[in-house]
Amino acid sequence: MKKKLIRIISSCCLLKYRLFYPNVKIGKGVITGWKLKIKGPGQVNIANGVNMWAFAEPNQLYTYKKDAVIRIGQNTRLNGVTIQARQSVEIGANCLIGSAIIMDNDFHSIDPAKRHDKSEVPTKAVTIGNNVWLAGQSAILKGVEVGDNAVVGFRSVVTKSVTANTVVVGNPAREIKTLTNS
What we know:
The chain has one helix and 20 strands. It has about 180 residues and is mainly β. It has one domain (about 1-180): UDP N-Acetylglucosamine Acyltransferase, domain 1 (3 Solenoid). The strands form four sheets. A six-stranded parallel beta sheet has the order 1-4-7-10-13-16. A six-stranded parallel beta sheet has the order 3-6-9-12-15-18, with no helix packed on it. Strands 8-11-14-17-19-20 form a six-stranded mixed beta sheet, with no helix packed on it. Strand 19 and strand 20 (about 175-180) form a beta hairpin. The protein starts with a helix and ends with a strand. The relative contact order is 0.10.
């Protein structure tokens, strides 16, 4: 009964995106509740089996340019994430993403003379590999690549790419452990 109710709620929540947002592509078996916001002119592609059922904070997917792309891989779990793309944010399959923020740009120049000029905003694509865990309140900043199976700890600020099979923590994030198959 519970699974059936979740499917009904998900269908209702996703219906507006399927009907009125041609730039949003949603795969089969996607689960979500009322806490989902998708805005902007760019493409948002959500693969099959993605679970976006958020508990406290909403999942927010924002594109800021027509050629911006957000891709979320198969069977990935999002819970309160904010993704902001001017260029590209790609998330692999089977990821666990808590209330993180992922953004591919700075939004404002640090140069005071250019601070209000959106055309001068530094932007670089973000890529999250497969089976990655981004813990709550972590931040993934522009140009970062997170390798497969990596773990980003709670409240970590990732400014540089993360090697596959590692754990990073802190601000700025640094590697503390290499993961091995056990």
